[in-house]
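## tool: complex_structure
## caller: assistant
## args:
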Amino acid sequence: MDKDKQLQIYYEMVLIRRVEERGAELYQAGKIGGFMHLYIGQEAVSTGLIAARKPQDRVITAYRDHGVALNCGISANEVMAELLGKVTGTSKGKGGSMHMADTTKNMWGGHAIVGGHLPIAAGFALGDQYAGNDNVTICMFGDGATNIGYFHEALNLSKVWNLPVLWVCENNLYGMGTAVDRASAVSEIRQKAEGYGMGNERVDGMDVLKVFAAAHRTIEAVRSEKRPYLLEVVTYRYRGHSMGDPERYRKPEEVHKYQENDPIGIFRKALIKKKVAAEAELNTLDDKVDEDVKKAVEFAEASPEPSLEDLYKDIYAE
Amino acid sequence: MAKITMREAISQALSEEMDRDPAVFILGEEVGVWGGTYAVTKGFYDKYGAERVKDTPIAENAIIGAAIGAAMVGQRPIAELMTINFAFSAMDYIVNQAPKLRYMFGGQFKLPLVIRAVGGGGRQLGATHSHTPDAIFAHFPGLKVVSPGTPADAKGLLKSAIRSDDPILFIEHATMYQVRGEVPDGEYFIPIGQSIVQREGKDVTVVTYSKGLELTMKAADELAKEGIQIEVVDLRTLRPLDMGPVLESFKKTNRAVVVEEGWKSYGVGSEIAARLYEQAFDYADAPILRVAQKEVPLPYNRTLEQAALPQVEDVIAAVKEVMK
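## result:
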C-alpha cells in the first residue's frame, strides 16, 4: 500500500474519533437528540474495510454508522449537520445519528432495526446480479445481529442464489450489554456461516492493515467467484453501547486493557516504525483533523433547520 | 373488450409489464416451477425463465427484504406473499422498512416495489390462514394499499402499481379469482388512489371494496326488487384514500353503510365513518353503520366461519336500518 493511502487511512481513523468525541460533547450539551452509538475503538474495522472496496461497491451498516459514513466519503460537515438535525445533513435532518446515507457515494445507510438491513443487503446484491454488473455489496452488522432470524434468512438466500455480498460481522464482544457467549450458541460468529456452506474467516479488527488485507482479498473473491462470504472482525468499543449506557456489564479494567491495544495508536506506531511517516507529519494530520472537526461543528451550527414544509416531503416519489 | 376472470386479469397485467420492462421480475414462494399456488403465474417460468420468476425459500423476511433492496438499486421487483397471513412474518419490511426508507434518508432513492398478497376468509383454513388485515397496513404512511373488486380494476390497478415508483401492497381476495368481468384489451390503467361509484342509487351510500363489493352488488340487486336504490362506492385504494366520490354520494343520500370483510374494530369502516362525520356531519340523516367480520378468530367449521363473516343479508339489514 502506498504512503498516500496509508496516511489517508490514518487521517480517517483520527477523524472518526474526533468527530465522535465532539459529537459526545454536543450530545451532553443537548444539541443532539435521540440515540447515539459511538464507534470509538472500532475505527480500524470500517476504515480498513472501506479502503479495500471499489467505488462501485455498496456499503450498508447498522446504527453505529458515523465512521462508515466518513469512510465512504461523506464529509464531516454533513455528518455533524445530520447529528444536529439540520437540512444540510446526509439525510436532510430526517434520519439522525442512526440513519446516515449518501447513495451517490454508495453508502446505503445506517439502519437501526438489529439485523433488519441484512435481507435488504441481499436485495442490493440481487439487484446487481440481475443487472449483470460486478458490484459487491458489503454488509456490516454487529455480533448481536447474528442471533435474529433476519441474519439466517439473508445468509441462506445469499448462498442459495450466489449473491455477491460480503457479510461483515463486527464482533465487539457485546450485544448491548450481553456478552456474546451469553447470547450466541457459538462465540466465534464465523462458525454460523458453516451452516450455510459459506466460506468464512476471522480477523483481528484492531489492526487496520490486517482488516484491509482480509477485506481486499475477500471482496475480490466475492466479485470473481460470484458467491457470498462471511468475514468476522473482532473488535472492541471503548464507549458504552449508546450514550445512555451505565456499563454494569463490564469492568473499567477490561476497557483499559483493550485501550492499550488502541487501533489508532497501533497504526501510528507502525507508520513511524516502518518510516512511512515521521511523527511531525502525523501531528500535522492530527491538526488537520482538529481543524476539520471544528469547521464541521461551525457548519452544522450555522446550517438551517428543515422547514415545516419538509415534514411532508419525500414520503412518496409520486 | 373480453370477459375474463380476476385471475386472468392479474396474470395479464403481470405478463404485459414483464414484456415491456426488463427491470420487472417476480419473486416468491412457488411462483415459478409450481406456477403460483393460485396459478396466477402459471406458464411464467417457461416464458420468462428462472432469472425473472424466482422461486424463493419459505422465508418472508428474505423475500420482502431482498425485494426492497433490489428496488432501492433500480430494479422493479414484484414480491408475492403466498398469503397475506404470512405478511405478519415480514411485518418489519412491509410497515417498518419499505414505507420509511425513502423519507428517513431524505428522498435519496425511489422504492418501486409491488407486494402481491392473497387475503381473505371463507375457505375453512382456520384462524391463522384467514385474515383480512387490510386496515392494519393502510395505517402506515409511506405504503400504498390497493385492493381491487373487479377484474378490470385488478388489471388496471396492478399495471399502475408496477409502474409506480412507490412501495405498494396489492391485496387480492382468495375467493375472487374466478369472478368474471369485462376487461379492456391491452394497455389499460386505473390510477392508484381513486374511488369510484360502481352502481348509482339515491337512497343509501354503501362504501366498500374487494370482497365487500361482491356482497354489496348482490345486496343491491335484492334491495332493488324492494324499490331501494343503493349507491355503491368502491374504494379500490385504501391508502391514499380518495373520499371524493364517498362524500359526493353521502351528500346526496344522507345515509351510509360501510361494508368490509375485516374486523369492525379499528377497521376501514371506522375510518370512513369518522371521515364522513368529520367532513359531512350536517348531511347525516342516520347513524353510519358498519358491516364487518364478527370479533372472533375465524373458526374452521363452515357454519361457524360463515356466521362470523359478513353476508349479503347483513348488508341488506344495515341498509334498511339506516333508512328507518
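## assistant note: DSSP finds twelve helices and eight strands in chain A. The longest helix of chain A spans residues 3-28. Handing back to user.
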